[in-house]
Amino acid sequence: MRTEAIDPPGITWLRVSPKYVTVRIAGWALANLIVVALLCIPLLLVAGGWWEWFPLWLAVAIPAVMLVLALWRLLLIPRQVRAIGYAEREDDLLIRRGIFFQRTLVVPYGRMQYVDIGAGPVERGLGLCTLKLHTASAGTQAEIPGLPAAEGARLREQLAARGEARLAGL
């Protein structure tokens, strides 16, 4: 993958756990099950004879198109997880993600206000967590999902210590 345009030179990216694919698939399955079920309601109403005015082909096409899009997203999930990475540098933390629309976020340690760790039920079951960085900018959405719990705890302590040291130096 060619990312020279957005990646600083000489960076060794650390990747998130491959178990994070399971977390993403669980979320995908729940969301798409609900959406496809809701989009099947017109099909059931047409098949039951309650909506005779609604074209049968459209009642079939709507959930079918959504199902195809959902399957496409499912195929992308493992690659999206592999694209998530982070790198600790002397003065800042780099976070990258994205396949088609790649993004590299630079979070200076001196701008960090606090570091938060969270884990949903699937993440907890797999021993993973999500690290969130809160900065002085409300627009910064810096998070690293899919970290092993021990790495998340280590990173939280390391980032908090570096942030305090940079703030004390100001």
TrEMBL record:
Highest taxon, organism lineage: Bacteria
Keyword Chaperone: no
Transmembrane spans: 25-50, 56-76
Pfam families: bPH_2
Keyword check for Transmembrane: yes
Keywords: Membrane, Transmembrane, Transmembrane helix
InterPro entries, per the entry: YdbS-like_PH (IPR005182)
Protein name in UniProt: Membrane protein YdbS with pleckstrin-like domain
YdbS-like PH domain span: 82-159
